[in-house]
Design goal:
Blueprint: H1 12-23, H2 30-34, E1 44-45, E2 54-58, E3 61-65, H3 85-104, E4 121-127, E5 137-139, E6 144-148, H4 153-156, E7 162-172, H5 182-195, H6 201-211, H7 218-221, H8 228-237, H9 239-246, H10 252-261, H11 297-309, H12 313-317, H13 325-328, H14 334-349
Parallel strand pairs: 3-4, 4-7
Antiparallel strand pairs: 1-2, 2-3, 5-7, 6-7
Helix pairs in contact: 3-5, 5-6, 6-10, 8-10, 11-14
Length: about 375
């Protein structure tokens, strides 16, 4: 049976526990009751723990972290609220990224995606880089079940633990969330996953590199090596350029997606920050969003929407039976992704140069083994 309480009431398990405890005549720490509220710019260190991990809740994000050992986060706590600044800053960056992508740019929020119906929150686990096999971050594309209120409800509900559906991001404890955009990058993967199953690396990682400019900053916006018009012409007519793109991963962000984002500046201008956009700040007061100027959000959103609409085609043309991880990354997907890009540009730019494009009869790239 699926969990389907109203999405506007994300703290329902917490309130259930509080009600149960009150009904039993028990007293409980007030911070637990506060944690049931969906506070956007303020968080709560939950009074319960999951094993040796602590839990920080901020709106629909729950950050699971260690204070000791190889997986411990830095202990600095400038605002003296009991939660390490590292953890708060991760949550704040994620909230800012969600705001820019979903509230301002109009991408579908992962927790509102039909694919993830029933998921209650996004579970962010802080691990060591070694535990993540050298990665700085990972975004998992399937719902998992996680313990909720461990050690609290178990005694009341005859030893049964409450397990609720969540989406999961893992982040390394060696990043500096004030300087590193890995949380934003991984959250955008959640956005992609909620809108399409396609995961060919040149598309999946390349577009996520583009997304890192969502919060601004010179390092992430920078200058382009080639003019957007030249890149678009190569994309349409140069088979060797496509071969290079198809066999790439993160580099496709700079070689294709960032130039593509600037192709039609009049029709797809940079985002304008709102008052709320500029209200996100790290624990030391530094603004999270620096000179917001993310270009191409309309084009990128339409690419994902087009891919979502095309998801039945591989089942008809390529005889997919289900979206296995291998099928999500198959070379044959390239034709569908290219068609989605062409259609998105055509809709956005409304110019002759954006006429529908077909992949030339050349190799569609080396087998994508993922990252």
């Amino acid at each position: 049976m699926k969990f389907a309480p109203p999405r506007s009431f994300r703290g329902w398990p917490c309130c259930l526990a509080v009600a149960a405890l009150v009904g039993c005549g028990l007293l409980f720490h007030s911070s637990f009751a506060v944690s049931s509220l969906a506070i956007e710019n303020e968080g709560t260190l939950l009074a319960w723990k999951d094993g040796n991990y602590n839990i920080w809740q901020q709106n629909f994000f729950r950050v699971k972290f260690m204070r000791e050992g190889d997986e411990a986060v830095p202990g600095e706590d400038l605002n003296k609220n009991g939660c390490p600044d590292f953890v708060e800053n991760v949550a704040i960056q994620l909230l800012a990224a969600h705001h820019v992508f979903c509230d301002v740019a109009g991408f579908m929020a992962p927790l509102k995606s039909p694919r993830y119906e029933g998921a209650r929150y996004i579970y962010v686990v802080i691990r060591s880089k070694r535990a993540l096999n050298g990665a700085r971050g990972l975004a998992y594309d399937e719902i998992s079940l996680q313990n909720d209120l461990t050690g609290i409800l178990s005694g009341i509900m005859k030893g049964r633990r409450v397990r609720i559906p969540v989406l999961t991001i893992a982040l390394s404890n060696d990043i500096d969330p004030k300087k590193n955009r890995t949380p934003t990058h991984e959250y955008f993967h959640m956005v992609q996953n909620g809108m399409t199953h396609f995961k060919n690396s040149w598309f999946y990682e390349g577009m996520a590199v583009w997304s890192e400019a969502a919060l601004g900053g010179t390092r992430y916006v920078g200058t382009l090596k080639r003019q957007p018009e030249n890149v678009w012409e190569s994309f349409r007519n140069d088979a060797s350029f496509l071969e290079k793109i198809f066999s790439s991963s993160y580099q496709a962000g700079n070689d294709l997606w960032r130039p593509l984002a600037g192709l039609c500046p009049a029709a797809d201008p940079p985002l304008r920050p709102t008052e709320k956009t500029m209200s996100f700040a790290y624990t030391d007061g530094t603004l999270v969003v620096q000179n917001l100027g993310l270009q191409g959000t309309r084009t990128m959103r339409r690419v994902l929407e087009q891919l979502g609409n095309a998801e039945t085609l591989p089942f008809v043309r390529l005889a997919y039976e289900k979206w296995t991880e291998a099928n999500q990354r198959r070379i044959e997907n390239n034709v569908f992704i290219v068609d989605a890009i062409a259609e998105a540009v055509k809709e956005t730019c409304l110019e002759p140069r954006a006429d529908a494009y077909m992949v030339p009869p050349v190799s569609q790239g080396k087998m994508d083994k993922g990252n």
